[in-house]
Amino acid sequence: MILVIGGAGYIGSHLVKELVKTNEVVVLDNLSTGHRWAIDEKAVFVEGNLGNEKDLESVFTNHKIDAVMHFAANSLVGESVTDPLKYYQNNVAATLTLLQTMMKHHVKKFIFSSTAATYGIPSVDIITEDTATNPINPYGRSKLMIEQILADFASAYDMEYVVLRYFNAAGAYETAEIGECHDPETHLIPIILQHLLGERENISVFGSDYDTADGTCIRDYIHVTDLANAHISALQALLDGSKKTATYNLGNGLGYSVKEVIETCEKVTGKKANVVMADRRAGDPARLVASSDKIHAELGWKAQISLEKIIASAWNWHQNSAKVTN
Ligand code: UFG
C-alpha cells in the first residue's frame, strides 16, 4: 500500500490517478486546499492532518504502508514571505512528525515534493541538481530544510528517499475530470485561461524589464501527468532497491517567457487576451529552466508533453471545471 499525503491537491490528485492503475493507495489529506472530488475513487481516503500524530498513527496502524509520497505543503512564495510561521509549521514541523511516525512503523521509503525555489536566483541558464541551492524565500527554505533532514536521516536511520524538484507544473488530466483548481489562483496559465473564458477582466504581466529577450520572466512548464509519471519511476526505483537516495529536477528543459505563454494560450484557444503591464512581483527570479538529464539517465524518465499540449489540456479542464466542481 502506498500512502499519498496531499492526494486531494493539484499534483497529488494527478499522481493518484496514475498510481491506482498499478498500486493500492491510501490518501491522507485535510482538504484545506485540496478537493474530495479530485481523489480517484479507487484510492482509500482518510481525512486528517499530516502534523497530527493521532491521524498518522491510525493510518499507519490500519494499513501496511510500503512507501510514502508527500505532496501536502503550502506553496505560495509571496505568502511564505508574509507568513513564514505557516510555512515552517506546515512544511517543516508537520513533515518531521510524519518522518517520526514512519520510523516508528519501520517505513523507510519516501518521495518528497521539492521545488525549483530551492535554487533561488541561479547563476546558470540551465539548472542541474549540482547548481548551488540558495533559496530567497521561506517557501524555498522550508523545502530545502526537509531535503537536508532527509540526507541526515538517510545517514543515521537508513531512510531511503527521492527528492523531486518541480519546475512549473501546469496542465490537466487528459479526460478533464481533474485539473488545477486553486483559490485564490496565482499561477500564470490558469489566470490567462480564466481571462480568456471571460472570468477575469485582463492579465497583468509582472515585470517587462527583466534581463531576458522580451523582458518578461522565463519559466520551464511541465505537464502534471509528466510529473506524476516521474514519481512512479522514482517509486519503482525505491521499491525495487535500485535507488537508496536521489535528488532530481523535473522540467521540460525549455524556457518560455510570460509573453510567449500568453501568445501560446491565444493560439490554442483562438481568443485574444487583454494584457496589462504591471510591476515586478517580489521574489520572482528572471529565469528558471531545468536540466532533467539526470533522471533521464538514471530512471529513463523524460517530459513528453509540449507547452501547446499543456495549455490545450488546461483549456479543456477550465471549460469543464464548472461541471466537476459544482
Ligand atoms: N505571472 C504574471 N502574471 C500573473 C501570474 C504570474 O506575469 O498573473 C508571472 C510570474 O511573475 C512568473 C511567471 O508568470 O514570472 C510564472 O508565475 P507562476 O505564479 O505561475 O509560477 P512561479 O514561477 O511563481 O511559481 C511556481 C510555483 C512555486 C514554485 C515555482 C518553481 O507556484 O511553488 O513555480 O519554479 F516554487
TrEMBL record:
GO terms for molecular function: UDP-glucose 4-epimerase activity. It holds the Pfam family Epimerase. It catalyses: UDP-alpha-D-glucose = UDP-alpha-D-galactose. Residues 2-251 form the NAD-dependent epimerase/dehydratase domain. Keywords: Carbohydrate metabolism, Galactose metabolism, Isomerase, NAD. InterPro entries: Epimerase_deHydtase (IPR001509), NAD(P)-bd_dom_sf (IPR036291), UDP_G4E (IPR005886). It comes from the Bacteria. Pathway: Carbohydrate metabolism; galactose metabolism. Coiled coil: none annotated. Gene3D superfamilies: NAD(P)-binding Rossmann-like Domain, UDP-galactose 4-epimerase, domain 1. One of its GO terms (biological process) is galactose catabolic process via UDP-galactose, Leloir pathway. Its cofactor is NAD(+). Its EC number is 5.1.3.2. Belongs to the NAD(P)-dependent epimerase/dehydratase family. Homodimer. This is UDP-glucose 4-epimerase.
